């Protein structure tokens, strides 16, 4: 599906070891993964398997202990300029209004103000936030705050978006709505996404490919190409084909949790 596109994230034999008072902890072991331009790839696995750590390596926030990691052809030694990042919580600036929060990276990067303002307004319209430009974060719902965070991450038009459980803190109904909304945003922008989630249905809904990671030290156990029609609505996601993907992915974790001989 994506093999004819260039790899924009190349992870080759990467391991990550943390130092602690009780000794070294191996978080990731010999992870290799390529993500291609325009692809949506989700990482799923048990808590503590290194999903978020792998995202931080790609973001240039941690150095790998061994192996190599390249983003858009360049070895990662510091945060690459062409990426955006979204965390579980929106982390908005309480003293800035919605428009000011979206423009914050543009201010830091000293982008052309006129161009950045036009981009911010386009993103707010795309995410259904037009008319809320002058509200403060406390005046918004959790889902709306996360949309502001998405706009902020896209303001400098990155080629790659890294997302660490961005919808986990939302209630179930808002989360479902955000997943379908975000699918539309990705389709509109064509951005490459590396996405961490604990939700298998969420991963199947959004992804071109789902990567299954093992318990710590994190290794890649399996990869699934999700060949479902887009856009993926409730009808598509309740189809037998979608349920087969969800069951296949769940089987990895059922095997891990089943006691030997039980």
CATH superfamily of the largest domain: P-loop containing nucleotide triphosphate hydrolases
CATH topology of the largest domain, by name, is Rossmann fold
Q: How many discrete structural domains? A: 2
Output the strand order for the largest sheet: 6-7-8-3-9-10
Helix content: 25-40%
Number of strands: 10
Q: What are its keywords?
A:
262 residues; 6-stranded mixed sheet; 4-stranded antiparallel sheet; 36% helix
Tell me what you see in this structure.
It is built from eight helices and ten strands. The protein has two domains: 7-82 and 160-257, 3-Layer(aba) Sandwich (Rossmann fold); 93-157, no CATH class. The strands form two sheets. Strands 6-7-8-3-9-10 form a six-stranded mixed sheet, sandwiched between helices. Strands 2-1-4-5 form a four-stranded antiparallel sheet, covered by helices on one side. Helices cover 36% and strands 24% of the residues. It is globular, with a radius of gyration of 19 Å. Strand 4 (66-71) and strand 5 form a beta hairpin. By secondary structure, it is of the alpha/beta class. The chain has helices at residues 51-58, 98-109, 113-126, 142-154, 172-189, 200-206, 234-237, 240-257, and strands at residues 7-18, 25-36, 40-44, 66-71, 74-75, 83-86, 160-164, 192-196, 209-213, 220-225. The mean pLDDT is 91.
């Amino acid at each position: 599906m994506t093999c004819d596109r260039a790899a924009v994230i190349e992870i080759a034999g990467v391991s990550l070891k943390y130092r602690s008072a009780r000794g070294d902890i191996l978080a990731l072991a010999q992870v290799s993964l390529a993500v291609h331009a325009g692809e949506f790839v989700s990482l799923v696995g048990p808590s503590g398997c290194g999903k978020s750590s792998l995202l931080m390596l790609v973001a240039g926030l941690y150095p790998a202990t061994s192996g190599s990691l390249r983003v858009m052809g360049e070895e990662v030694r510091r945060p690459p300029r062409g990426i955006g990042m979204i965390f579980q919580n929106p982390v908005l600036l309480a003293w800035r209004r919605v428009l000011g929060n979206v423009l914050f990276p543009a201010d830091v990067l000293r982008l052309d103000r006129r161009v950045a303002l036009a981009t911010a307004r386009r993103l707010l319209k795309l995410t259904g936030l037009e008319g809320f430009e002058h509200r403060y974060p406390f005046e918004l719902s959790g889902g709306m705050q996360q949309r502001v965070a998405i706009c902020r991450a896209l303001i400098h038009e990155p080629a790659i978006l890294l997302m660490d459980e961005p919808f986990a803190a939302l209630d179930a109904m808002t989360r479902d709505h955000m997943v379908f909304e975000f699918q539309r945003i990705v389709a509109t922008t064509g951005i490459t996404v590396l996405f961490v989630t604990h939700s298998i249905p969420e991963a199947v809904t959004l992804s071109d490919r789902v990567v299954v990671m093992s318990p710590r030290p994190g290794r890649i156990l399996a990869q699934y190409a999700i060949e479902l029609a887009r856009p993926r609505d409730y009808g598509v996601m309740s189809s037998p084909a979608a349920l087969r993907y969800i069951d296949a992915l769940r089987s990895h974790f059922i095997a891990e949790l089943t006691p030997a001989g039980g």
